[in-house]
Design goal:
The protein has one domain: Outer membrane efflux proteins (OEP) (Up-down Bundle), CATH 1.20.1600.10. Strand 5 and strand 6 form a beta hairpin. The relative contact order is 0.13. Helices cover about 65% and strands about 10% of the residues. The two termini are about 60 Å apart. The radius of gyration is 40 Å and the shape is elongated. By secondary structure, the protein is α+β, with helices and mostly antiparallel strands. A four-stranded antiparallel beta sheet has the order 2-3-5-6. A two-stranded parallel sheet has the order 1-4. Helix 6 runs antiparallel to helix 7, helix 6 runs antiparallel to helix 11 and helix 10 runs antiparallel to helix 11.
Length: about 450
């Protein structure tokens, strides 16, 4: 038996088909669930969101610090002959003598060095809600950051599903294109044999050769699309761009798998990150109103200072001072009143934005449910269409071999199989993307 030449188009296709399993075996397997997990763990967006959450948690600790006393340690060294400075320094050092009362000594004192070490303590005891408002605002910010991390995770789940699906579709186009090239090469060989036997024309041969060239171009384009899709998937998963995985096609849904668990819109709203953050923003605006009011009220604190003064570190004398202070800003150019008006306007804006987010969430849920049902119907139709196209191609090729069908029918049948295979994978991918969108719309 004569072996086909390695320059024959069919031989090249066969070599490519034989190489595909070896190339795939060198890749790590990757399921859709694994892709989603890798995206949730490795994507830089998740790391940034978790860092923001940790930052917000630290802001809460910072806000709580107002309940504790403020303690300052200061160390200063000064030298000069300024009369008031010299007079005060001598008193602080407890070195003031009778001769220092002399008029000339008071007006023209000798320069003196004062080394001062002081420990100051201040404890707020009364602020009418200002400190409490700050802590509540920080806690709300931490809750918003937590919901933000969850939102990033949900968005990455959809993004990973999209990217995974794009690779599957690119692979399907590549397989369909490779099959089309193999079929076209076989058809060319068949029609050349029929032409040599006087059963086909040169025009038939040229038509199939042109068709083969188109299929080869499609295979090249599909390979490029798959390379780009794989890079995008690696980017979402946080893996090096050049990493290669062997993707596994998700299991097709069974007949009773609707993918949607009926529930009320209200139940979904309670789990949605955007609604939760909008609600927290409204609560934060309410806290800001309370804080703006508290800024107009007095504050009270107790203070104490223990200090050492001397001309050197070894000759310092100690002293102490304790007291209380009440601060009440009576006029700040109407800034406090303007701040209160701004806080009320911010609350109105936050409430309106929350209503808008809730309305959008309801529409998104209905849209996701409709898209899923549409995708499922398309997938069920695509199943039957693919089987019909393959059977039709088999029948037409048999008829062509028997001289009962023209070459144009063979071309149309090959194109129909190509289109049906791509349509099936596209519908299957859209079905799983729609499922992910429903889960996101339901806050899962």
């Amino acid at each position: 038996m004569n072996m086909p030449s390695m320059n024959h188009p069919l031989s090249a296709v066969l070599l490519a088909v034989l190489a595909c399993p070896l190339w795939a075996a060198a890749q790590s397997p990757l399921t859709l669930d694994e892709a989603v997990r890798r995206a949730a763990n490795n994507n830089p967006g998740v790391k940034a969101a978790k860092a923001s959450e940790a930052e917000a948690g630290s802001r809460v600790d910072e806000a709580r610090a107002v309940w504790f006393p403020k303690i300052d340690l200061s160390e200063s060294i000064q030298r000069g002959n300024q009369p008031v400075f010299v007079f005060g320094s001598l008193l602080g050092q407890r070195h003031f003598a009778a001769e220092n009362f002399a008029i000339d000594a008071l007006n023209h004192p000798d320069a003196i060095t004062n080394v001062r070490t002081a420990v100051g303590v201040e404890q707020a005891v009364f602020d009418l809600g200002r400190m409490t408002s700050g802590i509540r605002a920080a806690r709300l910010g931490a809750e918003m950051a937590g919901w933000g991390t969850r939102d990033v995770a949900q968005a990455l789940k959809v993004a990973a599903t999209h990217a995974y699906g794009r690779v599957l579709m690119a692979q399907a186009r590549g397989r369909a294109a490779a099959a089309a090239v193999a079929a076209a090469a076989e058809d060319v060989a068949r029609v050349e044999h029929r032409r040599d036997a006087g059963l086909a024309t040169e025009g038939d041969v040229l038509g199939l050769r042109v068709h083969l060239s188109h299929m080869r171009q499609g295979a090249i384009e599909a390979a490029g699309q798959e390379s780009v899709a794989r890079a995008e998937l690696n980017d979402v998963m946080g893996d090096p761009i050049d990493t290669t995985f062997q993707l596994e096609e998700p299991r097709p849904p069974v007949a009773d798998d609707r993918g949607v668990h009926p529930e009320t819109d209200t139940a979904s709203l309670t789990r949605r990150t955007d609604v939760a953050r909008a609600t927290l923003a409204s609560q934060l605006a309410t806290v800001q109103i309370a804080a703006s009011r508290a800024a107009m009220l007095p504050q009270a604190a107790v203070q104490g200072v223990y200090e050492f003064n001397g001309q050197s570190f070894g000759s310092q004398a100690s002293s102490w001072t304790v007291g209380a202070v009440v601060r009440w800003n009576l006029f700040a150019g109407m800034a406090d009143a303007a701040r209160a008006r701004a806080a009320r306007a911010a609350l109105d804006r936050a409430n309106a934005e929350r209503e808008q987010v809730e309305s959008h969430a309801r529409v998104e849920l209905r849209s996701a449910q409709t898209r899923f049902e549409t995708a499922r119907a398309r997938w069920e139709v695509a199943q039957g269409t693919r089987a019909q196209a393959q059977e039709s191609q088999r029948i037409i090729r048999d008829r062509y071999d028997a001289g009962l069908a023209p070459v144009n029918d063979v071309l149309r049948a090959a194109t129909a199989v190509l289109d049906s295979n791509v349509a099936y994978t596209t519908a299957l991918v859209d079905l799983f993307i729609s499922r992910a969108l429903i889960e996101r719309a339901q806050g899962q």
